[in-house]
Amino acid sequence: MDIVLLVSASAALFVVIALSEPVAERLRLPYSVVLAVVGATLGALAVGLRSTMGAELGPEIVALLSLPIRSSVFLYVFLPTLIFQVALGLDLRRMLDDWVPILVMAVAAVLVATLFIGGALAPFSQMSLLACFLIGAIVSTTDPSAVVSIFRSLAAPQRLARIVEGESLLNDAAAIALFGFFLSFVMAGVPNPTLEDAFIGLPSIILGGMLTGWVMARIALVAMVMLGAYPLAQLSLSVAIPYATYVIADHVLGASGVVAVVVAGMTLNWLGPGRLAPATWVNLREVWDLLAHWAGALIFVLASLLIPRLLADARLWDVLLVIVVILAATLARVVMLWGVLPLLARLRVSPQVERPYRIAILWGGLRGAVTLALALAVTENLRVPADIRREVGILATGYTLFTLFAQGTTLRHVIRRLGLAKLTPLDLALSRQVIAVALQNVREEVADTVKEHSLSRDIVRSEAKRFGQRLDQAVSLAEEGSEIKQKDRITLGLLALAGRERDLVLEAFREQEIASGRAEQMLTDVDRLIELTRLAGRIGYRRAARRGLGYGRRYRLAVAAHNRLRISPPLAQMTASRFDILMNQRLILRELHGYIDGKIRRIHGKRVADLLHQVLTGREEDTAQALEGLRLQYPGYAEEMERRFIRRLALRIEEREYDSLLKDGLIGKELHVTLRQSLAEARRRLNQRPRLDLAVQKSAMLRQLPALAGLDAAQLRMVQKRIATVYAQPGDVLIRKGDPARHVYFIASGAVEVEFAGQVQRLGRGEMFGQLGILTRRPRRAQITAITHCTLLSLDEVRFLDLLSRNQTLRQAVEESTTRRGLMTAGGEDRAA
């Protein structure tokens, strides 16, 4: 084909892509549906021209009309781009809240749909059952570009969008792996897999893809960090990640390339913000948004060009088969949404997915270019019998057209009818009140600005009167909500407060006061704060706030790895991140008090504002307590982190001063660039977080314990080597009644509660427990429970007795502890722990 003609055709395609977006907006149709219509129309025109004017057309035109669109173009060029970008854009931390329904719909639903569709087709089709299962796997793929583009264009709830986006991404990985497995059953001349292959081969393909994606992303991330001074090189390297990952997994290792790209994208999404500069990460996301937009549009247009070709041999009986596929696929999703998910919710395995959400998920399972690409791969495979190739092409195309034109065109209407796209009464009231306050601020700022200009007084008064009328109307609408209950006003105030907190986090991130990884974690906590406040008001707000300060599953695993396996790096890293988050959160919470007095009080009144001050003060106290607990555990490290916080603040202010000097013309551009570069280098060094050495912290804690104050240097080294650090959370049972006495514990920070014979005592920092059971060689007769987050130092029985025999200070501490707690009888019998 002539290169000029090919370039012209490519330019024409991009013109079509550019024009389709405003057309879709004007017609109120999904963008993907318009692209499908355009592609199918162009494909039909090409078929018509070839059949009617084939002899009269020049060879270049014939070559262009017969453009050899292969499945490899979709699978190796466009598909990695689409799924990698979707994986980069997912809010993975929030998806963890709904990981059960996402996995159920992405994996279990694929298997169920494959079985339902294959079983329903078998009685009506002349194909084998395995070929019917192959069709089921093909049409089980929900298209990421079609689904994500529609849901992101709607005012749908964020939770619904997360579930649908997560399903559409992971669904493809599972369905394509299943597609490859069943394809091997129907290819002639290829040994059919056995049942053993099904249980071993398929999981190995998926696990191999997951491992490949994770390794490739980690290698790429290390290389990108090394190229930190070259942001364009980092972006270029990111473009290579999905393609290299797909090829290595699919061709070199025989694993699932799609699974590998999904895992690579999610790994980079999870780790990238904490390793790359904020500007680099923002640019990377923007580049991939553009690449995915082009890839998604091209894959729809080019795949739609194939529709006339795939439907060329369709017959009336094939329409019945398409209807069977539609009914079976719908029934499979109904079973999952109304059978499995509610059952999991009742068993408390999964969070509840509300009925409107389930209807939207049912109707949002669109198929698109991915389904057509898999069907094309079958039709191109000469090892597949001709009758199977024909049926696959027709049924997959027919079902895709149904989902696009029946479901895609009505999805907006369905979401609106379900009430998912409209503001709730609280949101509507909040929006009116926010507008009223915003217009008041605008009036004040305009009045101040106008004074600086020599404007006609008549014009100023006229415009002020006009704006005042608009303001009065906005205030009137806001006052219509005066009948809103006090409880709802508190909820509105908390939502406004959480929204302002989110803005402050983003502002601190842009000012480089907060590193990317910590900013994302804080934004995730704020988003959860907003959602739970919408659901449960003040109770939900407090619950989310406590959850943000708590120690999650990952932290508990890190603690277990440290306590039981002596693996400390994960715990050290999470603790260091916690320092950063708590110090920045404390600063942000203080600023929110001014927001309450300046904005919320004007909308909701003094009573609501005072209550919000109380709630916010409670959060400040909880944050200060958590921060103080970390200071007690790691005094030297806490001091270093606070120094680092001050230095980062000083750098930001210094940078602002240089920008101001440049704006005022007091320094030139060249000097400003030089100064900014020096600040960037200083900030880069500062962003290298000081290392939290738990061994050093253990030594510092040992020296602070009164019971061990008399140890000489040799004894201290011996104890430090043998003593273990144990971290406990509130409610953890440290010693149970009846347990053998094996260890003695020293409280480095926190507090525990001793329960014995109906009496309760509390022990705090510097005290010990567990020694009496060792001294009397009897089982424990008390239960000891942590009542705060505790850091304990544990010494085993043998070394404790050896140390006790050689250290007078420790013996005195044991006697004082025993006397003070009154837990020994006159005869010296152990009555407690």
From TrEMBL:
GO terms for cellular component: plasma membrane. It is found in: Cell membrane. It comes from the Bacteria. GO terms for biological process: regulation of intracellular pH; sodium ion import across plasma membrane. Its main location: membrane. InterPro entries: Cation/H_exchanger_CPA1, Cation/H_exchanger_TM, cNMP-bd_CS, cNMP-bd_dom, cNMP-bd_dom_sf, RmlC-like_jellyroll. The keyword Oxidoreductase does not apply. Keywords: Cell membrane, Ion transport, Membrane, Sodium, Sodium transport, Transmembrane, Transmembrane helix, Transport. SUPFAM superfamilies: cAMP-binding domain-like (SSF51206). One of its GO terms (molecular function) is sodium:proton antiporter activity. Residues 707-821 form the Cyclic nucleotide-binding domain. The lineage of its organism: Bacteria, Pseudomonadati, Pseudomonadota, Alphaproteobacteria, Rhodobacterales. This is Cation:proton antiporter.
